[in-house]
Amino acid sequence: MSEERPEAVMLSNNRRWNISSITLLVAVISVALYQLSSGFFEKNFEKSSELKSKEIKSIKEPSKLKYILYDGLNRSDILITVDRVLSRLGLEKIEVSNPSNLPNDWNLLWTFYYHESLNEFINWSDIKHHQKVNHFSGNYMLVSKSFLTTHGNFDFIPKGFLNSEDVQKYATAHPNKRFVIKLKSSRGVKLIEPSEMNFSQKSSDYFAQEFIDDPLLWNGYKFDFNIFVVITSVNPLRVYYYKKNVFLRFCLKPYSTANISDIDAYVIGTDHIACQSFPYVKAYVEAGYTYKDAFEGFIKEIGGDIDQVWKQVENVIRSTVLIKEKYMINGINRLKASKNSFFELYRFDMILDKNLKLYLMEVNMSPCTVPVTDRMHNKLMYEHLMFNLFTLIGIGTAYEKESFQFPNYDVESMVAYHDAITVKPKTCLSSSCNANCTSDACKFCWNCLSEDYRIEMIQALQEQMNRGYFTRVFPVQKEDIKEDLWKDITHLNKFYIEWFQEMCKKNKQFC
């Protein structure tokens, strides 16, 4: 019996299709489908690419922070370091040749003179929270030489006098004291006998001040050291100083007061020996060290306690700013401006006497940061100072920003979530603080804090994270504040000092 083979395919007309026929059919269909589909996908890919290209073009690039520089002197060099550092940080400069043409869409306004010089061009009450200005209104009481020395009673500021009668009366009671006469507007310092002084408070451009007769000499030369100080906020007050470096200036001649007309021997004037030209300092700099290293090396070499010097520096800065803060608060209130829109960089000029007692001679607004071509170390110091300053106030941050405000809640939470600023959990978790906030003990609890208080705390935390080479001198522990100053500190400052102390208990690095 023959074997019966199964039919591969049975057609109605009984014709058979073998395997090779089926394979051929599949191949033909596949080619046809490929040709159809490739045309379809090609057209759609073109459309898709076109669409994507349009979408990319339509996406707006993030806005850059914008800054304006206004020197008021038509000197392109005077703010060159500020300009250079801001440019490197990616900010966009708005060129303004005439202050009457100031636009509204700026984030940072850096002026050389008091910003009051722009009063006729800017309505300060319209300044937004995300706009920053580099001067405080009312800071004249801090930077004016005559106001600094005649208003307040500090043992670290040589006593000043605004009229001849007062200085002569004081000289009679203190026969061993000597005095200099100074121009209120600039230097013009020279020793003078009290009997020869002839000026009045109302009409004169001069004032008188005690002379420090026994200055510490460095290789026979009188010198001062200058500290850069930043105030980022008033009421609550936040103050920092740049501790990586100092600037040093030396008299042109070895110290002597034998000939009072030879002011180059006892006055550190506009003409002076700068840091890098003084042999002792030059040796440090050429070996890769800072002016501060040279200064500390000298103090140690003569047997001085450098830690005590820095403690005096911090006390002088803190005490001086605390007593002058009220004038800045009043100035901002007069402008009806947001207090969060102002910050300031100062230079505190100090000298030491032979016993290493520190004296504050003056405070400079808009300190010189112009690098001289043959002084590379100055250029690097000023640029580093400015970079740290801008980082402190929120420009050189690690995330993209379109303003000085946080861009969104996610970024805010990532950088400074509120669990980083809350303190006293045992108190705040009690039933009494959960029920109401009337008790003073509950004032730091998150549910009891006003929005303004929360913002200030978050800003303080941001600055703590971004302070770089700046050291905070206020707020500090209560015991670091002189007792006679405590009674005049604002209620808000006392609140933040107490919060600061609690933060230090929670995280020692915060201190």
What topology emerges from the helices and strands here?
Blueprint: H1 19-58, E1 66-70, H2 80-88, E2 92-93, E3 108-111, E4 132-133, H3 140-143, H4 145-150, E5 160-161, H5 164-173, E6 179-183, E7 190-192, E8 206-210, E9 217-218, E10 221-233, E11 238-242, E12 247-250, E13 273-274, H6 279-286, H7 291-301, H8 306-335, E14 344-352, E15 358-365, H9 376-393, H10 409-416, H11 425-428, H12 431-435, H13 451-466, E16 470-474, H14 483-486, H15 491-506
Parallel strand pairs: 1-2, 1-3, 3-4
Antiparallel strand pairs: 5-8, 6-7, 6-8, 9-10, 10-11, 10-12, 10-14, 11-16, 12-13, 14-15
Describe the structure.
- With 511 residues, the chain is α+β, with helices and mostly antiparallel strands.
- Among the domains are: 59 residues; 53 residues; 102 residues, no CATH class.
- 37% of the residues lie in helices and 15% in strands.
- It contains 15 helices and 16 strands.
- Helix 2 packs across helix 9, helix 6 packs across helix 7 and helix 9 packs antiparallel against helix 13.
- The radius of gyration is 34 Å and the shape is globular.
